[in-house]
Amino acid sequence: MVRRVLFGLLALAPLTIALHYLVHPPETFEFVLAALSLIPLAWLIGEATEHAAEHTGPGIGGFLNATFGNAPELIIALIAVNEGLTEVVRGSLTGSVIGNLLLVLGAALVAGGRGRLDRFSSFLSFGLIAFAILLFLIPSVPGWDGDPDTDELAQVSAAISIVLLIVYVGVTWYSLRRHHTLHVASDEEIKGWSLRAALGVLAVATVATAFVAEILVGSLEVFAEKAGLSEFFVAAVVVAIVGNAAEHGGAVVVAYRGKIALAGEIALASAAQVAVFLIPAVALLSWLIDPLSLSFRPVEIAALAGSVVFATIVLFSGHSSRARGALLLAAYGAVVVAFFLAGDR
């Protein structure tokens, strides 16, 4: 029954896009409709990822979900760069890493309960994020007492972005080879969608998600003004949650079905991919529009570092449980409060 309802709600995405370009309804109405449209799209990406993982294993399946799920965030960030909303870009990217580490993973563990995570892969993701945070300090610290958007800081950001991308390529190549070696598809596993069909659905759903997310972000300014929220809070919390809708739905759906390892890979691979691929990619691509510096605020650096340390401690044993998931969700609540109190720079 639920699957039929979600399948029917997929019609909301083309409806939202058509209304936006043809009718131009009030922005508050667009915000609500776009948010509702992302729910069935997230479910569809979760479904397609689960079928793809039956052919590839949870590690590669998590990588696929992270890749397709983060595509809308890249588009959203570049649009914001084009509009000169540098604080929105930085806030949404740091909020995305934290959201995956605490909110998405926490919700997945609550939905899935007891199980085992791939401990090696989990700590590899934690290590990548920690390494990225250390590099982010280089352009961030000088911006705490001055202009965070200087050309010099943008050039430094470009240099560390290249380093992060090189590390990302090397670690991803090793990780995918490892997961391919560990996974052997069974006869039962290949009875679902074909790998080509699953990847095709992922691609279509990602494109639709990108369009809907763009519409939602375009209406966020009016929403933020009426709600009395700072632009930083809206970017780091609301935009980050919207951009991560695919991971939210995908991780929770597969965790609820008992595939804890895949759910963990979705959340952690996405967090690591944002830190060492998406953020540097945005920084480098911004040079085609308006150079962006990775000069994050102290509250962002502190929240990133605290989230990595806390998640590492909670998941140190490699086991999952609803209690551990609740701890991660509570930590995310604390970060949300901190972002709310921080206000704009």
What is the CA-CA span between the terminal residues? 47 Å
Question: Order of helices and strands, N to C?
Answer: HHHHHEHHHHHHHHEH
Which residues sit in consecutive blocks of at least 5 with pLDDT less than 50?
A: 182-190
Helical coverage, percent range: over 70%
Q: What proportion strand?
A: under 5%
Q: What's the domain count?
A: 1
Strand runs, count: 2
Mean pLDDT reading: 84
Approximate shape = globular
The rounded Rg comes to: 19 Å
Helix count, per DSSP? 14
Largest sheet: 2 strands, antiparallel
Q: Give the class from helix and strand content and strand pairing.
A: mainly alpha
Spatial strand order of the main sheet: 1-2
Describe this structure in words.
The protein has 345 residues and is an all-alpha fold. The chain has one domain. The protein is 81% helix and 1% strand. The chain contains 14 helices and 2 strands. It has helices spanning 2-9, 12-23, 27-56, 58-82, 86-112, 119-143, 151-182, 195-218, 220-227, 231-243, 245-256, 260-285, 298-314, 322-342; strands at 115-116, 319-320. It has a two-stranded antiparallel sheet. Helix 6 packs antiparallel against helix 7, helix 6 packs antiparallel against helix 13 and helix 13 packs antiparallel against helix 14 (322-342). The chain is globular and about 55 Å long. The N and C termini lie far apart (47 Å). Residues 182-190 have low confidence and may be disordered.
Task: Sum this structure up briefly.
It contains 14 helices and two strands. The chain has helices spanning 2-9, 12-23, 27-56, 58-82, 86-112, 119-143, 151-182, 195-218, 220-227, 231-243, 245-256, 260-285, 298-314, 322-342; strands spanning 115-116, 319-320.
